[in-house]
Design brief:
Order of helices and strands of chain B: EEEEHEEHEHHHEHEEEH
Number of helices of chain A: 7
Structural class of chain B: alpha/beta
Number of strands of chain A: 1
Number of strands of chain B: 11
Largest sheet of chain A: none
Strand content of chain B: 25-35%
Strand content of chain A: under 5%
Radius of gyration of chain B: 18 Å
Oligomer: heterodimer
Structural class of chain A: mainly alpha
Helix content of chain A: over 70%
Radius of gyration of chain A: 22 Å
Helix content of chain B: 25-40%
Distance between the termini of chain B: 45 Å
Number of helices of chain B: 7
Distance between the termini of chain A: 42 Å
Shape of chain B: globular
Shape of chain A: elongated
Amino acid sequence: MSTVRSQKDPPIRVAVTQAVKSIRVRFVRQVAAGLGVLLGIAFYASVRTSQALSPVNTADPTSVEAAQRLQWLAILSLVMCLVGITNSMLMSVTERYKEIGTLKCLGSSDGFIVKVFFIEALLIGSVSSLAGSFVGIGVMMVVRFLTDGATAFTSAFFAQAGIIAITATSIGILLSATAAVLPAFQAAKMPAAAALRVEV
Amino acid sequence: MATIPVADNELVVRTRDLVKEYKLGDYSVYALNGVSLDVFRGEYISIMGPSGSGKSTLFNMIGGLDKPNRGSVFINEVDIAQLSASELAYLRCHTIGYIFQTFNLINVRTALENVTLPMLFAGLAADEADERGMELLDLVGLGDRYHHRPTELSGGQQQRVAIARALANNPSIVLADEPTGNLDLKTGKEIIDLLRKLNEERNVTIISATHDLKMLDVSDRIVYIRDGDVAKIDTRAELDLNVGSSDLGEHS
């Protein structure tokens, strides 16, 4: 007797090894993609840190204006970051259409393919966002230390810096995951024959 | 869910009036135009035809990789048009093994890992999969190259790994799309002999799209496709009579 059942996803370990192997094989390119995230998050973290180091004097209109401008820059840096990650994720899905088609022939569920890309983005995103927040906060602290000495480094500032590190890292991971999900879903839903036909 | 009884001389693949149409602007091209074909368990079938005749399209339909516009494909008497995406994945995992012209190994994985991947998809434990994977690599004569990446293997060796991978979950059908297309004469012959050996020893049904005339020698039946339809079907017996007297003789 032979029966057709629903295919289950393999253990998550299989998707993790596939993701790690894929990153290792394209290491240089993945580092470049990671650097994009790192720089975006570092810029965001540095803007937030400089705000924390010099609180806005609400009585002074130029100080308020400068603070607003910084806010915009931070948002823009995040947008740039998102574009960068989306671009590298799209590339990484597109160049692997054939591999996706082959995986489907071997009996991979759609869920497995989405998981592989999601885990890849999560790994690259978390490592580079964490590094980015430290770089951003660190650079601003060094600059401040060189100009004014250690006077601004109060315990209140360190508490704020901690919050900035956590927010910046979370934003980075969230952006990476968001950017990965759409192309991965699109690739997984493709008919296997169409995925195999694609030549890049 | 669908269940079928297993009997002797049963049909493993049955296609009925398959039509696949590709729209090119205002007019349509029929890659398949009403193909009906029966394949029995344990047969070695070659699908011959010039490029553009619809061989690969038929391969994709039988393998559940693409959907026809009209007509149906039955694998073990299950109409695959009725299957959901995850049921199709199950079918591809357990019932069908695929071999491609370009080998299509997963480059980031070693030979052994390529062979075991379908087993992991089927839910086998890792150590069990490794053991079975080594047996299959031994079977295709690559037991000592198990830790090599596809890029470190020759074309013939890669195709052997692909054959071992196709057999991972004991499929009832192995589909081969131009398996010798990227190989030299000698290596191609070795791959054909290996497929024939597996067909005889393991009773795997082999359906191969090809225009390699070396395939004629080993096939039980040869299906000729012209312009998206079956032009004629030769059986082994007829072919033996014709060899020497017809133009087939000089190619084989």
